[in-house]
Amino acid sequence: MTIWRPDPTALRRPAYLSLADQIARAIVEGKLEAGAQLPTQRHLAEDLRLSTQTVSRAYEELIRRGLLSGEIGRGTFVRPPRREPEPPYLPERLGEIIDLSILKPAGEAIHLERMKAGLRELADTVPASVVLSFRPNVVFPRHRAVAVEWLKACGLRDVAPGTVCLTNGATSAMTIALMTAAPPGSTVATEEIGHHTLVPLASYLGIKLCGIATDDEGILPDALERACEEGDIRAVFVQPSVINPMASLMGETRRRALVAVAQRHRIAIIENDVLGPLVEHKPPPLAALAPDHTLYITSFTKCVLPGLRIGYLVVPDRLVPAAANRHLVTNWMATPLLAELATRWIENGTAMELMLWQRRALHRRHAMAAKAFIDVDYRSHPNALHLWVPLNGHDESQFVAHARLHGVAVAPGRSFFIPPAVHKPAIRVSIGSTSEDQLRPGLERLAHLLRSDPEPALLVI
Known about the structure:
Layout: H1 15-28, H2 41-48, H3 52-64, E1 68-71, E2 75-78, E3 98-99, H4 109-125, H5 128-132, H6 136-139, H7 141-153, E4 164-167, H8 170-181, E5 187-191, H9 198-204, E6 208-212, E7 214-215, E8 218-219, H10 221-230, E9 233-238, H11 252-265, E10 268-272, H12 286-289, E11 294-299, E12 311-314, H13 320-330, H14 336-348, H15 350-372, E13 386-390, H16 396-405, E14 408-409, E15 411-412, E16 426-430, H17 436-451
Parallel strand pairs: 3-14, 5-6, 5-9, 9-10, 10-11
Antiparallel strand pairs: 1-2, 4-12, 7-8, 11-12, 13-16, 15-16
């Protein structure tokens, strides 16, 4: 219990919001310190002569604001001041560093040439609606119809154009999907080693995350089942097709088992499939197995071209109005010029051409990695943009610092662990983020450090 108590005479209607504001001010003014435990909802309701429901709504509002955390079986606590998360990649290139920290596809002159040609064509033939309209339904009917053809290449065969939302890439689609499937204060399950952007995004949206145990195929259905039975899980966010940090590909049997759990507990599935058709011989997407439960995300930035920041969010029919409204208030609509370019590239084959180019480039780069890491334990997939390297015996922070001193930047594994997962030292190594001429020495330097005895870095850049 804490000494500070709200002032019942200062409460105004609506009482839950007035109470929440009082507690928020006490936190800001230091009267309630980080880690302080608040009274139970029942005790505080009795003290203030309010209903338990009113106090519960106040606590939920403060959890949504990120000021409190509720822990099942323990109580409600004041959260430490929010720290802005550090990205696992270098925000900008520094000197002669070989940057293997940021996850991006390989890129060469062909990509710039295709973009220049596409923009020249747009300059002469852009439709008036693309530059003059404010209404998404006026701009995008044709784009949605063409999107259906790309989604077939991703494994979705029966998508209605009206269920496709064009977004400015996958992050925008993630935001809309989370806001649609999980209200503030609710819990979303995800892989215990998952999407690093999901952690701060969920925090900003007032959503709690629950890391679920995984194996070589990804999330374990039995572990998700237990989480659903023990807590109020509203959705599961999953990356089943190679883009996850472990670069694992979930098999069809596992996918069907995961869908069965979601259907049994009536939770939404948010499927992040940003590599789309880049992954060869993959099983059907979860959205193909459970279209009524799944919000499906794909985009062009990781499999075609980073500058083509257009994505597709496919939602169940019943969620189309909710997703459209959330898109309107966060982005209004996708950038029409880029949407037009992506649509034309699907129609004329450029998107597929660049995706197949990427697949060949990754095969070459994985061959380099296999040669450099011949005696190193790592995980990947022939179509992955990265390697996942456990740091057996090495301290993660020290290893990342050592790599920087040797001119190579990598992403620390701690950025991808979702509580309550136990952090195991590892690094993520991007193989598409630089030229092949730089990738080879970068991998060789990392392999040398991995073979060396662990040693603390005396200098940190």
